[in-house]
Amino acid sequence: MTEIGTTVLGYPRIGPDRELKRSLERYWAGKIDETALLETGRALRTRAWRELKDAGLDSVPSNTFSHYDQVLDTAELFGAFPERFTKLGLTPLDTYFAAARGVQDAPAMEMTKWFDTNYHYIVPELGPDTAFSVAGSKPLDEYREARAIGVETRPVLVGPVTFLLLAKATETAPEGFRPLDLLDNLLDGYVELLRRLHDEGVEWVQFDEPAFAGDRTEPELNALIRAYHRLAKETARPKILVAGYFGGLGRGLGVLARSPIDALAVDLVTDESFVDAVAAEPALRDKEVLAGVVDGRNVWRTDPTRALSRAATLLGTAKSVSVSTSCSLLHVPYDVEREAELHPRLKGWLAFAKQKVDEVVLLGRALKEEGVDLSAARAAATDRATAADLADAGVRARLEALRPEDTVRSPYAQRAAAQQAALDLPPLPSTTIGSFPQTTDVRKARAAHKAGSLDDAGYEAAMKAEIERVIRLQEDLGLDVLVHGEPERNDMVQYFAERLAGFAATDFGWVQSYGSRCVRPPILYGDVSRAEPMTVEWARYAQGLTGKPVKGMLTGPVTILAWSFVRDDQPLGETARQVALAIRDEVHDLQEAGIRVIQVDEPALRELLPLRKAAHEAYFAWAVSSFRLATSGIDDATQIHTHMCYSEFGEVVKAIDALDADVTSIEAARSKMEVVTDLGAAGFGRGVGPGVYDIHSPRVPGVDEVSGLLRTAVGAVPAERIWVNPDCGLKTRGYAEVEPALRNLVAAANAVRSELG
Ligand SMILES: CN1c2c(nc(N)[nH]c2=O)NC[C@@H]1CNc1ccc(C(=O)N[C@@H](CCC(=O)N[C@@H](CCC(=O)N[C@@H](CCC(=O)O)C(=O)O)C(=O)O)C(=O)O)cc1
Ligand SMILES: N[C@@H](CCS)C(=O)O
Ligand SMILES: [Zn+2]
Question: What are the angstrom distances between the C-alpha of 228 and each of 209, 210, 223, 332, 756?
């Protein structure tokens, strides 16, 4: 094989029935041994490779499997685990899991969002003393394993520059040290790995460099030049494919085109204008170009006419052009055919990973041969494009009729006074972010309800019992603003999608979010509207149990879009306004039901921030206005909260301010309240609840620790605007940790309160 030909850049790995998730969690719980866990992985890989080969792809990727995360795998491969894990004396597999999840006395490595997706990677910690070497053999092992079952594969690796750009400096690294300073040493490792792969008989290797879909500095572009000149210079190496995805490559395109690599994969879906840039790049004439025309991140069936015209535009530019996905298929579910409950017409418009592989094969043939039958694909595209019932005239008319004043609340000072009069809260009021632990009983009740073995009344009774338990617990703990605990929600986005017109939910559409945790992103296919209240009865019930205020709990429009598969036939901002209108109705109904505090969560505000700065302003405009549309038109005395997790607020501080929420709770415990200082410096003048309990860790913070964090916050922002709360919801934790942690949180609030003048 000289060309790569048709391929996909990566494939889902959690298993069609979340086999890996179940095995991992059983292994961590001590219920199965290492051999059993490794066997699950082997079986999943075998199945995936066979499927990809049998589907007719010219090239099948390997090393796209991971027991947790591909960036963590790369750190392990090059021997770059922090000493706090390697000194524990654990097996290699347990050292790997310790780095991912933490153990007593060795906190986990940081986890953060993989570019603008809902997948999370583990952040490598690198310092001037980090010495890379080829310490592992995973890519080689998987290559051999595939070859043993008769599948020749193309190992996929995180590219060296992206790896370093995703890493952070260790806490002890000197000022000014950047992980990119380690490039030459890391390249030694990659060169050695290339040599080993070559000796093994590997023909092609893929390096992923998605970091170049974002704005990059001159030194970073120079690093890209250096890296691929160095790697390609080696004579004992497989052919090199570099994959840039999640957008156009900007100046990275010219750099890679002029480097001596053999092939380049480009994303021709995310940014249409990039197609012309690629077509106009003369230096591609000696390279194979993989035209990423099948969307790896969304679930719509590919329009063959558009896809082929994009790919064909490159025919005169590159040495050869083949068809591929725009990025790895990690971000979509396995197989739409399993979705028996989906409306058949909608199903006909969809392609999950398995169907996308077939699309790549079909389009690849159509690009090279005459007479390939594309009629079914064309008919599906036409059917969707002309489906009149996707539009809801009522929703569109309501949005048309909105006036600017409909998205503006009274001045904050006026609202704050009315809210204090209504709520009569003490200084440093304490609250939680919404969810309480989702116990096995709660999940079992939901599963039984769905299966029909628990009727509606039984399910409602089970949820109400849980809500009452959570309310009584919070009263006992002495929290000031209570929550109902969200037991009725399978997921904070899916729950709403299941109740809104315009969305469809799936039964098996699981996508890995991090480690063993998965989500089922709903499919947003038409205009959005709310038929009836979605949360009001649960909130009313909870409020009826207590004299303390109960916070209503909603998910905001940006987050609902970020964690759904969105329609691609209209601008995201337009869809956001429709979702916002439905949330606005819910806010209004909660207020009417006597709920005086309403939280509209926007944890994905940062995640959807475009990778390129040039697009930020337009994004902020629609993101902020959709939140304001959702949260205005209510009484001054109704207090609006919002919540964001995932630090790195720097770039979105102004947008957070523009949301105009009365109270904003944010993740802060891990960064030791840094964000409060940032907010103070940005002139943020409303309520703020910096998280004082890191809920991502099983550790119970002590009273002194929480008091210390609170004192830092009080030093940076006037005390009358500070709230006391955890970093995020408690749904993934157990009561054994949550109860003492919240008890300490309340005790700390009381202690610092008593110190206020
Ligand atoms: C806050 N986060 C979220 C993100 N995206 C979302 N869409 N939602 C989020 O909350 N992105 C950023 C972060 C990511 N964090 C998480 C945290 C936790 C999970 C998680 O725990 N996922 C669960 C699945 C949750 C769910 O949908 N549960 C359903 C179905 C439960 C189920 O699996 N049932 C069993 C049967 C019941 C039983 O016996 O236990 C089954 O089907 O086998 C429900 O509760 O009804 C996970 O298991 O991975 C995800 C992202
Ligand atoms: N209200 C949600 C927010 C998570 S980001 C929760 O508490 O789980
Ligand atoms: Zn959160």
Answer: 11, 15, 9, 30, 59
Contact 82, 125 (CB under 8 A): yes
pLDDT reported for residue 647: 64
The encoded tokens of residue 756 equal 């206020």
DSSP H helices, 599-734, are 616-631, 653-658, 674-681, 703-716
| Amino acid in position 642 | T
Give the pairing of strands 111-113 and 120-122.
antiparallel
The CA distance from 259 to 4, in Å, is 18
Q: What is the ipTM of this complex?
A: 0.97
Rounded Cα–Cα distance for residues 571 and 210 (Å): 24
Ligand 2 atom nearest 433 alpha carbon:
7
How much of the chain exceeds pLDDT 90, in percent? 93
Residue 696 appears among annotated catalytic residues: yes
The CATH architecture of the domain made up of 19-386 is Alpha-Beta Barrel (3.20)
pLDDT tens-digit readout, 141-192: 999 999 999 999 999 999 999 999 999 999 999 999 999 999 999 999 999 9
Binding residues: 18-21, 113, 118, 433-435, 486, 517-518, 563, 601, 607, 643, 645, 667, 728
State pTM to two decimals.
Answer: 0.96
Tell me how far the alpha carbon of residue 109 lies from the centroid of ligand 3, in angstroms.
Answer: 19
Beta carbon of 672 within 6 Å of any ligand 1 atom: no
Residue among 300, 463, 491, 465 at smallest CA distance from 380? 300
Question: Domain ranges in the chain?
Answer: 19-386, 419-503+534-755
CATH architecture of 419-503+534-755: Alpha-Beta Barrel (3.20)
Indicate the top mutation candidate among 122, 443, 488, 496 to test ligand 1's pocket, ranked by most ligand atoms within 8 A of CB. Answer: 443
